[in-house]
Amino acid sequence: MAEVVFSSWGGKIVDNRQGGEPEAAVFKLPASYLEEGSVGAFMGWDGVIVFDKEIDIVSMAAEYIKRVQEKHCCAKCTPGKRGTRVMMDTLARILAGHGDEKDLDILTGLADLLDNCKCTLCMTSAKPVLDTVKYFRDDYQAYLRGGRKSKQAKAYHDKLTAPCMDRCPAHIDIPAYVEEIKDYRHEESLATIRKYMPIAAVCGRVCPHPCETNCRRALVDEPISIMVLKRVASDYEWIHHLEPPMQPKAPTGKRVIVVGAGPAGLTCAYYLALEGHQVKIIDMLSEPGGTVAVGIPDYRMPRQLLQREADIIAALGVEIEYGVKLGRDVSLRELKEQYDAVFLGTGAFKSKPMGVVGEDQGYEGFSPGGINYLRAVALGEPIETPKRVIVVGGGNTAIDCVRVALREGAEESILLYRRTRKEMPAESYEVDDAEDENVKFIFLALPTKLITENNKIIGVEVQKMELGEPDESGRRRPEPVPGSEYIIHCDLVIPAIGQDPDLSYLKDGDYGIKQTRWNSIVTHGGTMMTDDEGIFAGGDCEYGAMTVVLAVGHGRRAARVMHRYLMEGKVYLDKEDAMEDIINNLGAFDKNEKVGICGGLHREHQPKIEGADRATHYEEIELAMPESQAVREAERCLRCYRVGMLAVN
Amino acid sequence: MINLKIDGKDVQIASGATILDAAEKVGIQIPTLCYLKKVSPTGACRICAVEVEGADKTMTACNTRAVDGMVVTTQSERLAKIRRQIVELLLVNHPLDCPVCDAGGECDLQDICYSQDVVRQPFEAEDVNAATIDHWPLIQQVPNRCIMCEKCVKTCHETIGASALFVNEKGDKAFIDKDLAKCDFCGNCIQVCPTGTMISKPFKFKARPWELRKTPSVCTLCAAQCQVDMHSKQGKVLRVTSEDGTTLNDGNLCVGGFFGHDYLNSTERLTAPLVDQQPSSWETALDKVVAEFSRLRDEQGGQALAGLASPHLTNEENYLFQKLFRVALGSNNIDSEARFSNLRAARVLQAQLQLDGASNRLDRVGQAEAVLVFGADLRAESPALNWQVQNAARKHDSRLVIANQRRSRLVAQAESFLQYRAGSEAYLAGALAKLLVDKRQADLDFLDRYVANRDELNAYLDTLDLDAACAATGVSRAQLEEAADHLGQAASVAIIFGRDVMGSANAEAAVAALANLALVSGALHGDIGGLFPIGGKGNMQGLIDAGVAADFLPGLQDYATGREKFSAAWHVTLPESGADSAGILKGIEKGTIRALFLAGSNPLVTFPESGRWRKALEKLEVLVVQDILANDLTRMAKIVLPAAASAEKRGTMTALDQRVNKLRIAVEPPGHARPDLAILCELFARLSGKPEPSEQTLRREMMELGGHYAEVCQNLEQRSFCWKKPYAPTDRSLLAATPELTTPAAADLQLLVGKCPFQFGTTTTYSAANNELAPAGLMIVNPADADRLGVADGGRLQVTGPAGTASGKVMVHAMVPPGLIAASDNFTDMNIQQIMPSGSNCVPVTAVKA
Question: Does B16 contact A632 at a Cβ distance shorter than 8 Å?
Answer without folding.
Answer: yes
